[in-house]
Each structure stands twice: as C-alpha cells, then as structure tokens.
Specification:
- The chain contains 1 helix and 10 strands; from the N terminus they run αββββββββββ.
- The protein has one helix at 2-33, and strands spanning 40-41, 44-45, 59-65, 71-76, 96-102, 107-111, 117-129, 135-139, 142-146, 154-169.
- The chain is globular.
C-alpha cells in the first residue's frame, strides 16, 4: 500500500515538475516579447506578463436555507476578468481548509453545512441533491458556496468517477439562520 502511495506521489510530482518546466519555457519566450513594465497589478509591475485569457470559474452554485427549512440552490452569474493578466475571485479569512477524496457514489445523506463552506472540485465530480430530487453536478471549474446551516440540508455524493475536492470553511458566524447572505459581500471580508 505504501509503495503505491509513494509511486503516486512521484508521478504527481514528476508531472507537476514537467508542467512547470514547460510553462517556464513558454512563459519566458513570451516575457521577452513584452516589457514587464507594461503589465501592472495594483501598481506593481509584473515580472512575467501573461498572454491570453485567464482560466476562470465556469459555474457557481449557492446553497442556502429557505424560510420553510429546505435547502435551495441557485446558480450565480460568473464574469471572467476581461483584459487582466492576474485576477482574484475571493479573498476571505478561512477557519479550515481540507483536501479529500471519495470513491464513486460515496457521500452523505441529508446534512447541513456546519459553517459557510466553499467546495471546489479538483478531479471527478460531486452531486448535490435537494429535497425535491433536483441534482446539481459539480465538476472541475465549478464552485459551490454552501451556507444552508439550518433545516433539512442537502445530500452530497461523489460522481461516477469519484471525486477529489477542496473544502474551505469560513467563520461560523457568517452562516445565516434562514436565507442567504448578501452574495455581493461573499468575495471579500
């Protein structure tokens, strides 16, 4: 078992090293074409200007508790940064960050978010199911903000290929008893 884990780590590290080396080679060639002084982020020149669009969140789901105690889900609009080379979607204080995986179909029956939580799928998928049977499948490129801290909650299971997720728990004080928080204030403390 330990040999498999070590081999897996080596494969991941080797792939990451090759990717970083490839990025350095292609990024270095592009940086020579554009002077670093032309690219700024908050008034500070970038050492390595980028080219092309920034990869961005495809879909954002917001889970919250309705006045009847049942979880609701809404899809929020996403707007990729236009013309920027570096952008930030979220800057918040977090209490805990977890990275974990689950085999295909593994998950939890109805439960609530213990505190406001951002769920970020890295590999595979996660299916969130509501009381009425509605399902939302989170995949790589999606983000879910769960703040259904009261009521019946939701079901969550990994998809058919399993899942590897990042979970970022925000301070519990930010979880509303009913309804959703002001989403315009979600992205910054």
């Amino acid at each position: 078992m330990m040999d498999d884990l070590t081999l897996s780590k080596r494969d991941i590290l080797g792939t990451a090293a090759a990717l970083l080396a490839g990025l350095a080679l292609t990024g270095g060639a592009k940086a020579a074409d554009q002077p670093a002084a032309d690219a700024h982020r908050n008034g500070v020149p970038l050492d390595f200007p980028g080219t092309g669009p920034i990869p961005w969140i495809k879909r954002i789901f917001h889970l919250y508790t309705g006045p009847d105690g049942l979880t609701r889900a809404e899809q929020l609009a996403t707007q990729p940064p236009d013309g920027a080379q570096i952008a930030q979607l979220l800057r918040r204080t977090a209490e805990r960050v977890s990275i974990g995986g689950a085999s295909a179909g593994a998950g939890f029956d109805f439960h609530v978010a213990n505190q406001p939580t951002l769920l970020i799928p890295l590999f595979g998928s996660m299916v969130i199911e509501l009381h009425d049977g509605t399902r939302h499948e989170l995949r790589h490129g999606d983000l879910a903000y769960a703040e259904d801290c009261t009521g019946k909650g939701h079901i969550s299971r990994s998809g058919p290929e399993g899942s590897l997720m990042v979970s970022v728990q925000l301070p519990k004080a930010g979880c509303p008893a009913v309804g959703g928080s002001d989403i315009s204030k979600l992205w910054r403390d």
